[in-house]
Structures
1.
Amino acid sequence: MQKRWILVFICISSCLWAQAQMCEVKNNEPLKLLHSELMRNFKVLKTQKPPVYYLSYRYNEVSQTFIEASYNGVSTQQDQDSNVTVMVRVGSTKLDNTRALKGEMADYDLVSDGYLPFAQLQDPKAFQLDLWSATQKAVEKAQQQYSQVLAHSRTRSQAADQSDDFVFPPKETYCEVSKPQTIDIEKVKALLAAGAKLPLGKPYVLNYNVSFSYTHKQNYFVDSRGTQLTFPSEHMRLLYTLSNRTEDGMDLQQMKTYDIASLDELPSQEQFLADITQSLQKLEQLTKAQPGAPFTAPTLLKGRAAAVFVHEVLGHRLEGHRQKDEAYSQTFTGKVGQPVISPLLTIIDDPTQIYFNGAKLRGHYVYDDEGVKSRPVTLVENGVLKNFLMSSNPIKGFPTSNGHGRLGGAHRAVARMGVMRATSSQTVSYEELEQKLIEEIKRQGKPYGFIIEDLGGGYTFTSKSMPQSFKLETKLVWRVYPDGRKEMVRGLDVVGTPLVSFNKVLAVGNDDTVFDGSCGAESGWVTQTNIAPSILFSDLEMQKTETSSWKPPLLPSPLLEKGGKK
Amino acid sequence: MKRFLGLILVVAACNLWAAQLPDNIYFRAMNDEMQRSKKQLHIENNAKPLYIAYRVRKPHNQTFSASMGVLRPYTDPSLFTTDPKVSVYMYSGDFKNNSSFFREDFSNDYVEEEAVNDSYEALRNHLWHLSDAEYVSTSKLAEEKAAVKRNMQAADLEAEFSKAPQAHFVQDIPAFTLRDRAFYEDLVKQISAQGKKYDYLEGFAAEFKFSQTDRYFLDSEGNFSQDYRVYNRLSLWAKFRNKDGYVIELKRSMELPIDESKIAAFAWEKSAAFLADTAKQQKAQKAEFYAGPVLLKPDAAEDFFMTLLISNIVETKNVLSVRGYRSTNKLVHKINHRIMTPVLDVFDRPLEREFNGFLLRGFMPVDAEGVAAQPLHIVEGGKLKELPTVRSLIKGQKQSNGHAVRFASRYPVAWYTNLFFEPKNPLPVQELEQKLMQLCREQELEYCYIIHGGEGVKGLAERVYVSDGHREPVYGFTPQLSPSQMRPLRDIVAAGDDMTLGSSEDTVMPSILVSDMELLPIEKKPDRKPFVKKP
């Protein structure tokens, strides 16, 4: 009850910030225009040979602000753009142009000039002309693809999963509009400039920048089933990165992001400077730290690191299309109802969630990029596989979308994560986790274990042609000795295979932490949130980080020189 | 005489600004880092840098564009800071005669131009990074190159990297003027709205772009320059299907008059001409194979000279790549030989800033190797007299003539600046057309061609019939020209008096009459018909 109250309160607050207003679909001019032009085109296209059986338009009006400060300079960029993506399906739901050809990687690119350079809604005639022209190109490409699909389907061996290529999304209407927030540029500049002074002239900082970005989108979606949607989305982020390179060519980085809903949520200058100062200290410490060595040992992943771990190692393998396309390794295909990871963990993806512990979540969305309403999905419950992230591309046993069809840029939507959260019904405090880590180190007789405080990102191979491994790049690693002593080390990455790693969970913390980021895959870059508590593993493998062939500069930073006219 | 004047200008500039480095953050940052790099940049057992050049470019832009009468989003320049772009290039050790792509042959570590925040500290920091990366990279290359030479037993073909007299050029840089937004938005909207009157057009857009790039250059020999370039342009774009079903996207971009009070009239005139061309092209006939006399209008003449002459007078030094020494320029050994018709002389004029009220893009007082750029008389009476050169000398040359030009990701190469193709006896265009018809009759042809510009589906030409002089627009032809076959340069029999600034804004040439040329029809099939009727 209390949680629901908080959610309602937060939603109202966010609506006020974004000045969002509910509206009537029938009175929304852009939707009317998009819908009428789509239906005009579809009426003819569905009679073609081969026929277009589904058509959708996505149109975005984007406004962006970017402010960056470094080395006593500040730059500002503010602009607006608009673009259209046309999605065409030729053939039938059973077999269409998007079918992944066996033995080949599927083509996820939509017509590259599906982006309309001059798309503007102020003049209906000009806009219709652009839509018509983009539709023509998209249909030409889809028909070509469909010919290839037909040829392949007659000559190649049968796929194991004979599910249809598409399920029609339910008809939806939704109308909510907002205007971009007014950004007080001078206020942001002042904060950035203050932050950017701190790293200046520090001998252990090779490069740095402090930036602020704000993107507001008014999204429009219409399709040939009658769906008409418009809704806003916005992301505001404050970020700083500090980097250095060691004598042995290792690139080090410390960074922090603040994902916020409005300028009111910006950290105070005092807090911001304190955070940068702390990161500078860590960077200096890292620069002086000894390089780590490859080793397998008990490892505690702190919240942010655990969130990235869940995303890379598990999340991508739960995306629906990877269970059907035989180019992928299909790690979890056919394992619904079976235990796949530690029974201590439950994994949920809930893009409807806007906030977590007061932090705005980048992975939230109202409707996915196929016009399907977002909804929470329990993927794994107490270690047992329950569901997959689904787009409108059905797979065996999962015939409908659960609102996870997402894309970035001119790509076809596939199932992607939104707000993925790892939880557990049996949790302990972080302090207890550290204690358990030390106990496990002693039990295994290892000279030391690891605490991974932060991961920068990583990647995982999901295609059959590659080994089913992952690699996660660490930002901050501590070596923990049996006597509880901690020593910072640098240059270690976490590597392993998913099925083995996720069954080595010993304990889960109660310190849920948010990692907000962006993820790039077949369907482009999408914003995402991963939430996880700290997780203790009985062992994880560390390997050495790749180093650059470049040494640090021969001369010291010019900013360490004294005097001189600037 | 003109060449003499050019020299006087350079000398005057040198004396006036002798060793007076302008006092601004760009030069302070470049000079401070340059002094440090010269003194201290050194890897043990490696040579110090032989030559270092720093370049800073600060762009300013303001754009107004519209499509079919609808404005595109306007980016307010006051809310869009354009950061200066810094680049560093360096020659270290044995570094002469390198292929401009030599670096790519050996290494992927090329340091690109970087945009930095506009402050002394940001500039210093990036110059420091780039100098370091460039020195390490060029030192490594010098060693690798020495190994290649040993393996190939290759001897030096040319003189060392040559010295040059000091060159300085300083011009006050004005603040970028923001144009009247309301005026230009209204103008571009109205111009693009003309597209609505043409039923066959699937799109018509216009754009005014006002740009200024402030340029700062300093090298390790104390040469420097400060100037600015203005690019004010009108771009027009149209898309349509011609009667045979080919989708044609035409784009034309042109320099705006220096006198801004003439811009509106100019834009109306040019957009009307552009739309008239689309109308011709929409109903034009497809070309067939043709061999015979051709009159090339200035735009077409520019393509002709670009292919046959201009591509052969640049990159004049022999270069060493992993494949060995090779000559990139076949004209290097043809000085004083006849290479083309005596009908036109060819001049390179780096110090000229404008032509007929329009700015020339090739203005370059000091080149990318710190050498004062000199005017050249490239072709005189059909004979090749001189070529653009850089500090890596070519045979028979004592000094660079200041034509080192640097393109993105490449070392400076010998390049042209502003090329003028000047007829000895210019003929009025009408007379040139009569001459074309005369040649046509002599060869007993039914018609001859006047090419206006372009090629393929985008090309526009006219067939002129001998019987009654009537004209038919034609598209879909490809002139048979190749840089390796310069023979057609000798077939120019006359040139017009219509000297025109080319679309590249660094060539000025008239219409030319070529006695014999081949045109091939395109083989491309028409595009698919629209599935749905145009809205």
2.
Amino acid sequence: MLHQPITKNYHDFIIERDPEKCIQCQVCVRQCSYGAHIYNEKDERVTEDEARCVGCHRCEALCPTEALTIRRNPSEFRENALWAPQFIKNIYKQADTGGVLLTGMGNPYPYPVYWDRMVLDASQVTNPSIDPLREPMELRTWLGSKPDAIEVEMKKGKPNLTTQFLPQLQINYPILFSAMSYGSINLNVHVGLARAAEELGILYNTGEGGLHQSLYKYGENTIVQCASGRFGVDSKYLNAGVAIEIKIGQGAKPGIGGHLPGEKIGKEISITRMIPEGSDAISPAPHHDIYSIEDLRQLIYALKEATDYEKPVFVKIAAVHNSAAIASGIARAGADVIAIDGFRGGTGAAPTMIRDNVGIPIELALASVDERLRQEGIRNRVSLLAAGGIRCSADVVKAIALGADAVYIGTAALIAVGCTVCQRCYTGKCPWGIATNDPYLAKRINPDIAHRRLANLVRAWGHEIQEMLGGMGLNAIESLRGNREKLRGVGLNEVELNILGIKHAGA
Amino acid sequence: MKKVYAREDVCIGCRLCEIACIVEHSISKDIIRAFKQEEKRPARNVVEECGPVSFSVHCRHCDEPPCVQVCISGAIVKDPATGIVNHIPEKCVGCWSCVMACPYGVIKRDTDRGKVIKCDLCPDRDLPACVSACPNEALLYEEK
């Protein structure tokens, strides 16, 4: 073709195929769901349409001769500190389509990552470090509202606890799989998450898409979510898990609802979401019955009533400017657990402008919420979950030292099962078989492998957390919670240090 | 006996099993040489595909193999000790009777040599090449 639209020519990636190594086996052709690899039958050769490549690396991973390398397109616009290539390319796209830019996963821009500006302490000489391979090291965590004080009465010379506890959830690692709905990811991934959670003694979250019939048996390890669309919510669903999460917001798209297009509502998803096949699943931006903390309290207690006050109710909010005050309201509204999702949190689909410009870093939100709840003397009433951009076990440790009770991992879990964070989840064509319900692609997730890899990841992080705790001379994750003395900032200014509530390294 | 079983629910239709089979039964056992320098022979399994449904079909090493019954030259023999249905190329006359008799369609014609080829469960390996090549554990080698 002589003339091509500019968006086609200014593509992001190039596909390098080593002709010495390529055996024309066409594995790449079969694996690329975007059609970037093409088999030319006439010439009996595989060729490529680089404009279609999204940089997911599926072909590279499966090429049996390592003949493929996916690279950034080296073609460069004239350098300009203001007009970075993504702005130029986005304008071209929108000038072509007139549409809202869509994207997937979390905010990728180089905002400060505070995890990387905080370092941990370790014992030297004056206090002994502990070897977790030789001595007990407790990672077990209880989520739920704790009483202000406990009362003990002596009965026949033995102490007896008389305080009535609100429902508590015991988890073996301070790590939960965050909410990812059936629809945004497919059933195979859900099965993997559920089985891994069961094996590990942790919890996974259904997300807002309801709970597939086949997953009710993993109820002991399930948090069921109740979001603004109320998909798949009935009393059986609410009672299916061990906790209920009210989703107010999501870190990737604070203030924005969701929209699963009708084409994606196949039979199983339609049954699970309890909506007609082929109808759009629209989650409104707000819950239309929650316009205040008082309204939230009504929903929290309606859910508690529906579940006999046996299940803790979580409230998940996106990290935004006034998170601390909002969290205080949520705690007072009767929530047992508050999940805060930072602006790095992932999504199956969000408007690019929202994902990249709305919300605040989880580290700052978490520290300010924990501090505020302590100041108000209500920190014990809720457990705090930090979510959005937890990449490794050190991030978990830092989050807990900043005040979290546990963390949610979503993107990290997906990476464990193959995701390369190409950010094209919204197309529904995920070549790794994760963010897709196309039966041809969804088969690429073998639930057995997903289960094994997810369990491995959390176990590995568990070992590392134990090592870091031991190094600090702590023998239980409880002793780290909110223990900001164990953190020091590196290269942070006074304001940042104040918000994080930590000293600068050297101080 | 241990046989190769396909899991249709997780077969992704990549056909790496076929490629692994060709390499294992090549002279060099080197993937690039096998494909670029040696005469190409078909794989000994077939990946059947229709839309999202795909699975790899392998010789079942039947208890009463129709291929053995129809072979006019005694070139296909079931080993009573291992249960493996073996093909002896020296005896094969290329009449294709077994190809027609096989209910699974997994005996292939090697037209260059005028002989058939079939699965031998990779005698030089612990795990057949197709099974170890499957990226999604859709092939199982086990006793059922």
3.
Amino acid sequence: MSSTSPSPLHLAVALDGTGWHPASWREPVSRPRDLFTAAYWADLVAEAERGLLDFVTIEDGLGPQSSHFLDPDERTDQVRGRLDAVLIAARVAPLTRHIGLVPTAVVTHTEPFHISKAIATLDYVSTGRAGLRVQISARPNEAAHFGRRTIPRIEAYDSPAAREAVTDLFDEAADHVEVVRRLWDSWEDDAEIRDVATGRFIDRDKLHYIDFEGGHFSVKGPSITPRPPQGQPIVSALAHDTIPYRLVARAADIAYVTPHDAEEAGAIVARIRAEQKAAGRATEPLHVFGDLLVFLDDAPAAATARRERLDALAGQPYQSDALIFTGSAGQLADLLQEFQGAGLTGFRLRPAVAGHDLPAVTRDLVPELQRRGVFRHAYEAETLRGLLGLARPANRYAAATA
Amino acid sequence: MSTTMSKPPKRIHLAAHFPGVNNTTVWSDPRAGSHIEFSSFAHFARTAERAKFDFLFLAEGLRLREQGGKIYDLDVVGRPDTFTVLAALAAVTEHLGLTGTINSTFNEPYEVARQFASLDHLSGGRAAWNVVTSWDAFTGENFRRGGFLPQEERYSRAKEFLATANDLFDSWQGDEILADQGTGTFLRDAKAGAFVHTGRHFDIHGRFNVPRSPQGRPVIFQAGDSDEGREFAASSADAIFSRYATLKEGQAFYTDVKNRLAKYGRRPDQLLILPAATFTLADTDAEAEELAKVVRRQQVSGATALRHLEFVWNRDLSSYDPDGPLPDIDPDVSGSHISEGRAQVRMYRDPLATAREWRELATANNWSIRDLVIETGNRQNFIGSAETIARTINEFVQADASDGFILVPHITPGGLDEFADKVVPLLQEQGVFRTEYEGPTLRHHLGLAHPDEVRDERVAS
């Protein structure tokens, strides 16, 4: 046995409807008719918290789900429709105590001013457990829901035009995150003074205009919401290639990546670290989480059979950007540790069937990881930053004027 | 009361306005808690629900107020995101309506419609939207489009915004989700949520992605007072957040707005008039009057009085003595306004006339600047013992000065507690206020029909 104890790994679960497999809603354990109720989401997040997970993410989008990558479909055999992810997170926040809540926000059509105060408020209502997963939208149909601009249709991914369009969307995302973050810092922590002698509620010298000017928008500030409990809630993004690697390296606390083996995991981590260095953030903590879609059963054959059954119901094999794992908790623990050895610091597991694979994570995988000494036995911090080992950051504006 | 009276007494509607960023809120009181921590919102909401109130109300402003080019620092500053805090409050209450003020200028219909539909789902049918407009470039500096909207178009955009949001709410009928696990049919209709809206302000089409919520649409509030605002309310709103809480002004407003309904094919009971109202409650009327004076002086410090006079004078008056006479010089009506991000300054449409009137009032009553600001702006609507306040509220409602009130306590978060404990039981004893919630949704509390019933009624008539 090694003389040094293995380093702990971080574990999150990605919540999306009844699960990530498009036929997941047909499993008897699923509750498709409850998808639009608070109780459904409260139950899922309570289960994740029972498993001491770092956080849950909640998927979202500004249009209906689709089996096509960029276009809507007219299928009636899959779940369509979803509730706003930030509001789901806020609704479950008072019902939970420790687990981080990381809703998805599309940054392409939304206002950074609104997103910033929404996540700051999620941080208040959860007393320091908020995060944000930023996502771009390259879907022309979603642009038509807003009518404010046209998103060029991406015909071939390797064409210069597509590259330019995607680069532009990610540049806008980076600006969006920059504004969101500046607004979180636009109030210093001690700006509220309640000085009865002078009648001043705030010290206005501790509120700051952010004066952001970029290619897509300008934002003056300050925020209408005071600095949130964590100072800076967690910012995260899914990243598949150089352009998004650059975004997470510049702006995020967590990158979700999709390696299919340990070697690829190591290569991705190296590329992100290089981008981080290029962005001048080499010394700042940046988690790189591996995304895995999981079918978990005691018997590996049962997991495989379940996958085959769902694929048959869906009419085609489910394909994912992430590695699809089928097997037992022990096998998954082996894989996670192998990936961890390649440089990943945590994992975001996408349950194929929320009603089955989420409890399998919390009741089988977590105890297995605990036995191996790589996962917490109790929540050790009050905030999401604390769970992730991230310090509460100084305020950029306070530092500038000190 | 005479038994020959055939008309049963009106049922009163009561709501609670979370103390906001106006100077009615006394942050300097030792009992005043946090204005941003969730525990304050939860306390306030639980009190309102314990008292069987119809709903909680949140105001909103999308840029911090400034005066003389500096952030205004004398009142509470800072507040949470409206949708997010209301969704969290849905977790700590079961029946209370959740009314949020959301701007139609610096938002887009698709996003706002899905936020309200989501809030309505997550609260089991308790969402309401106070539709407000703004146009100023000052607020616009925080948003993608800047100050894009001319003032005269703000209601045109607001009306079309609401109509567009209604198209989105109505794009699902409510019976599309089959979720039949056996046959594999999730949606009955492949086109669920399909919409097309083409208009002057919005040209959008596609599929809305939130199924029909329990109330069909959120309850719609309107708060503007201009002729255009009143027409907007008469045509499109379920309730008005008004500012006329006195008997005579209330009756005039009530009559005016209710008379506008007929031309839109609506009945008087389809639009509720709910003025904002402040109160001071004590054991006796005399004690309440004394307490009310103390509160008013807490609300209007000398510094606050000068800043409020500047709303009319539009000049820097910091060199004046708040305990001295009003300025001899006239208001500056030449250029831009000293105060930004404040709807209140628009009330003074003729500053020269207001200044003249105020000087006369001050001279006649021997009022200082501070006295004048207190007397013209901060007198509480209801002052007295619990018996007096309950009686007055009931009289106002029965005399058609309103359909109820949105109470604005001056202390966060406990300012509603005493009202809940002392005044509400008296109204319940008189049979004019509910003792239990009679239905699960805000529409039930307000006696408003579900939009589908309203549509059926219109089709039938």
4.
Amino acid sequence: MHAEEKMTYEKWPAAPEKQTLEAKNKFLGFWFFLGGETVLFASLFATYLALKDRVPSADHALAKDLFEMPLVFLMTMILLTSSLTSVYAMYHMKNFDFKKMQLWLGITVLLGFAFLGLEIYEFNHYVHEFHHTFTSSAFSSAFYTLVGFHGAHVTFGLAWIIALMVRNARRGLDLYNAPKFYVASLYWHFIDVVWVFIFTVVYLMGMVG
Amino acid sequence: MSTYAQKRGFGATLWDYLTTVDHKKIAILYFIAGGFFFVLGGIEAMIIRIQLAIPNNDFVSAGFYNEILTMHGTTMIFLAAMPLLFGFMNAIMPLQIGARDVAFPFVNALGFWLFFFGGTFLNLSWFLGGAPDAGWTSYASLSLASEGHGIDFYVLGLQISGFGTLMGGINFLVTIINMRAPGMTYMRMPLFTWTTFVASSLILFAFPPLTVSIFMLMFDRLFGSNFFVTAAGGNTIIWEHFFWIFGHPEVYILILPAFGIFSEIIPVFARKRLFGYSSMVFATVLIGFLGFMVWAHHMFTVGLGPIANAIFAVATMAIAVPTGIKIFNWLFTAWGGSVSFTTPMHYALAFIPSFLMGGVTGVMLAVAAADYQYHDTYFVVAHFHYVIVGGVVFAVLGGLQFYWPKMFGTMLNETLGKITFWLFFAGFHLTFFIQHFLGLWGMPRRIYTFLPGQGYELSNLVSTIGALLMAVATVVLVINIIITVKKNERIGNDPWGDGRTLEWAIPSPAPFYNFKQLPLVRGLDPYWIEKMEGKKGMTPAEPLGDIHMPNSSIIPFIMSFGLFVSAFGVMYRLDYAWGLPVLIIGLVITFGSMLARSLKDDHGFHIHKEDLIDDDNEKGVKA
């Protein structure tokens, strides 16, 4: 099967994301990339844990003073749901239902923006209420770098998914763009997994002190 | 398609190389850039040795000496050794597994241009206010205090070239897993392919910690964060950990491909199959695995405590076991073989004892209690030059002589090659052997001069004379290359006569599609097997058909250039008003070209069957 071939529901294979050699390479290469990203975030987590609550003087806010459960719980739920909606999108991609895939990707993007908006609100809150800025202490630097790297990944993921949706809006699915949608959704899941760890290590462990 | 060898103007050739996605041309780019940086790092080494030739020398100032020693180390590791090895990986590995290209030709080009622009950026520091001066390890306690923009050049340059290396590593991994020819099972892969595979997985897991620590250093220096600022709660030891979590695997990233090159050279010139192939593979993987568990042996004197030091000491010593397996396998491969003493074989045979000496001092340094004595002395300098020059540089020089015909279709002069070898071999031992003793006598590393009457004069002079010999050897090599290119005597598929692996079954240089028909691999050393059965070439595994090829693209160049521009912006953001706009422009160029790449379909093109048949039959794989 050629990547450019016009596809129909009958011809659509069971694993459209890895039909051609290029697609197989993309699939595997992206998993390796996520392996490298895992080490990148592991390094950021290690730094955060080493520098947690390391502040120059007693008047700086610590983790237990900063975090509030309702906000981060809401953010977590939104991002987890967006992972679920991207699974629905891939389900429809595998069934050659382009319109429904776009719809669920659209919902994923909206949830992503909601998460990002809340994160911006959260950072803004810390800066103005607690004077917890990027430069105020080693703790704050490590916090904003870890959570901010995640936020940058969310931003990049949103731009990526939107670009794919717009680019392919008119022509539907084929074996050339199916792997592109698939790895974008893998990336989105990865972002979600990282957040699960941030929620646990930064927020939950932060609140208990 | 059949006229790829036609004469073209300089502009067309330049454009061809700027846009190429062909792994063989990218290899040549890596060799040109890596060779340039190798010479640059060599000049820096000569300045170091001239300064230290006599006591109280004032050839260079103390501050400039710090810049020179920093740039010598950084250049040699990141901009010479790694790119030269990447050159070999690109040039040879796809041919060895019977592939028509790497898995991601576009990303391959991007990796090269990122390295090129990162290295260029780093070296522009010489002209823009001074080079980095905190050593190649750039410990945060030193580098945060360094004035000017030297360290910023280090941070941004290495970040950009590091992205390129990471992409190269992923590319080679996927290529080896997905693109092997029919019959090329994992345990039939040549050792160089195996070592490329393991080195690439080390790159994948070792470079992200460097990326993170470099980001943190950049944030601390340019954005006011406090990761390493003790007064604000920071901790400079974090940098040391991350640097060595990257840095120790890095030395295996360098040495494993070197092992691979020697494992190719020795069987060819001993005319015997590699002794203990499976144990070689096992040892390679084990070295790669253990390489991640020993980083703190660079930090024995930090004060991590006796338990941590003991664990890391034992883990380090354990690496001597798989390395020893390899040494014996090379010896047993040559043992009883019908050895022909060509230039590559000279390097291979000289490598074994030279590298072994570096290994033995490595075990000495692994003894944590004794390391307090050796730490930061010339003993350490001698040790790592024995493994890196005696291992990696010998492999690069030997491999260059060995694979030159496969890359360029003409052979380097053997006599001049042997002159280079003997000068280099003698110069290398003269330079570094004595440094073990200098270190044991107490001479610290990274000092710009020493006083007379402390017993260091003669040894330092001997060391400098040795360095001169290596410089002369390099000049002879350059003369050799010029003569060879000028003469341009064409040679056939298998110029050494005893090639064992797939790359020797196809024309030299390989046609741009590599294999007209993918070969059928029937065992280890597939070409040797066919030759032993009286066949002229490989049996094809597929009928002659259309070949799918990737399109050339200028986007990798532009994407990397964007990061190069933005690096200036981020560095001068606080000094000049134009910094921020330049930063934004650079990022727009990079992300814009990423978007362009994503939006524009790139299906590549097909070479049609008829054109392949038209192609000079001599150059194709015989069916």
